[in-house]
Amino acid sequence: MGLSYTTVEGDRHAPLVSLETLINFVRGEQGPLLRFLTWKVRCPSAAADLIQELYLRIVTLANPERVRNPRYFLYTTAKHLAIDHLRREERVTSRSTPLDQAVSLPTAIPDAETTVDAKHRLTAVLQAIESMPPKRRAVFVMFKFEHKSYLDISRELNISIKTVENHLTKAMSYCRARFEALDGSPIKE
For a tag site, which of 44, 81, 95, 130 has the least CB within 10 Å? Predict the structure, then answer.
């Protein structure tokens, strides 16, 4: 699902919103958002995952200044994430293995250490993306998350394809270096 910018008609004179403002707003609303999402999806663990996904979407916004009403934008995006989650769950449930067959299947529930490591890595990714220069972050997000071509990115950002390539190369090197530092050893390809 692409992230749409929510504006409120008639609120054209609202102050511009920066990425930092949105991030701080998400942090300030984390408790109420968690309650809202838990109520929507009926699972505290899934709600916590959706908060992380919401944060990732906010951090990777290409044009946060287009958001005019942060609260409306935040809760609308959270609602859409919850709907997507419930649809995925419904698809999985409809294709589930019958109960008598499922008894013999091993579970794929990660242990606590794996869960903590995954959350630590997600935090590192978010911090790496957030700390990139704005143009590089926009190129990276458009390519990796929005699946846009180099040509589309160059047209949208009014930069050359070579500049897109340079930004992506630097962004990938930067992310790789952050993960190497996190692991304490080089990543094998």
Answer: 95
Contact residues for 114 (Cβ-Cβ < 8 A; gap 6+): none
122 contact partners, CB below 8 Å, separation of at least 6:
52, 56
pLDDT of amino acid 96: 55
Chain position carrying tokens 């109960």:
99
Phi, psi angle pair for 47, to nearest 5°? -65, -40
Q: How many residues does the chain have?
A: 189
Domain range for 146 is 112-189
Question: pLDDT tens, 32-52?
Answer: 988 999 999 988 888 888 888
* Coil, helix or strand at residue 6: coil
Q: How far apart are CA 172 and CA 148, in angstroms?
A: 16
Residues 116 and 185 in one domain: yes
Structurally, the chain folds into a number of domains equal to 2
Going by pLDDT thresholds of 50, 70 and 90, the confidence category of residue 7 is very low
Domain boundary (71, 103, 135) is at 103
What is the residue type of 85?
A: H
| Lowest-confidence pick of 33-42, 85-94, 146-155 | 85-94
Tokens of 17: 């919103």
Alpha helices in the chain (DSSP H): 19-28, 30-41, 44-59, 70-94, 99-102, 112-131, 134-144, 150-157, 161-183
